[in-house]
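SAMPLE LOG
Freezer: B-3
Tube label: C17
Construct: single chain, 491 aa
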Amino acid sequence: MRKNPHILEINAQVWLNKFAMELNKPLTLADIPQSYLEEIKSLGFDALWLMGVWQQSPKSAEIARNHPDILNYLSKVKPDFDPQDIGPSLYAIYDYKVNPNFGGETALLKLKKRLNDLGVKLILDFAGNHLSCDSPYLTSNPEYFISKPGIMPQEEGLFFKGPNGLYFAHGRDPHFYSWSDTAQLNHFNPKTREFLLGILDHLYTLCDGLRCDMVMLMLNDVFANTWNMYLDLPKPQEEFWPKAIKHIKDKNNYFMFLAEVYWGLDWEVQQLGFDFTYDKTLYDRLLLSNAQDIQGHLNAEHLYQMRSLRFIANHDEEPPVKAFGEEKSKAAAAACYTLEGARLFTLSQIYGATVRYPIQYIPKKQERNDKIVSFYEKLLSIIKDPCFHGGQWALKPVGEISKEDQSHKNILAWIWWQSTCCKMVFINYSDKQANFKINADKFPKTEKVNIKFTEEFSNTTKEVPLSSFKQDGGLPLTLQPFEIRIYSFDF
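STRUCTURE (predicted):
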């Protein structure tokens, strides 16, 4: 797989529904049209993250169909929604067996082979913090979970009555309410850890990588702080993840581990062996901050940058067109996906969706904005270039036009170079015109007198004397609000 791989997130049920409607027949994962797999490859994706393939929880579906928050939200964003389109949470996993409605493991392995034959890896989900509240393991192995024989009235939302008269804790993020369709695993129990290692041993045979859900909740200190009063086992001396990752990578060093992680713990989680970790800080700064704050984040340690998973969309966030606004979303995408690190896209993002549905709801039809689709097709064609994968990256400071005009501070700017190829990225990350100068700082050395620049989005070419970058503070440029320019040249 390339450095800085491109990953496409697709909901398996949405995908199958789309093709079933088009072909007017039910499909399994083995039946996905070859033309679509080839399109994924042609767009430059190195991996497909197929979300929601595991056996689904009947209880989670029942809870979702009666959950007031889900029903109220859907009534606002889609008043004509069909309650039958509400299903279980994809992260309240009943068991790590492929959904039989999708064709089971046989169909999944056929899809994996077809993707691999095209040079595309398959990534699946692992939610190690919890299982569904009706998982069969609650009966067969209750010791895997946090449980107690009885509860106090104030614990009713935290625990539920399960098999054998025991009360089991719901999974939770300590900053929010419990997930009412889940059962919390006890990560301080060595038997639970061995159970999870066994699951990873099985998943390793079905895919090329795992996107690991809410990784920080399984860290020893976080887990202790969240559940301390209910734990009767000591904190393990070692974290779960280093052993687990090494266990799999000893079999296949190219197997990929992606971590969903928040609270600024991404660097810590990288040290545990994850290949890439969510860069939520970048997302938040692109959404809420200015160019200077964004570039400040990009001054972080090089290894951290290389192992960050960049995104402006995933199933937990509002669609970029809605969250950022259409023009700013394009500028954010250009910024996000021309950096070092893995680059995550979602299918709904590329289609230009404006509504984020609850993960339990599967719409019969997807929104599609052809203007947004065209933008992403162009951006993906640009960043397929080897320079954005094998090249070296560096911030490229720009200069001011005058003391009175400080609009250059709104420019995001960096440079890539590989062999004789160079790419310069300039983005006006503001809603006002920006004026600035480009100097020769960080330019690779060259004997050329004139440099031929091609702007990739407009496909226009201009020859500029190299000397113009070295005199009067540099070559002046003007970018309109949220305008993107990516210049390519040889030196």
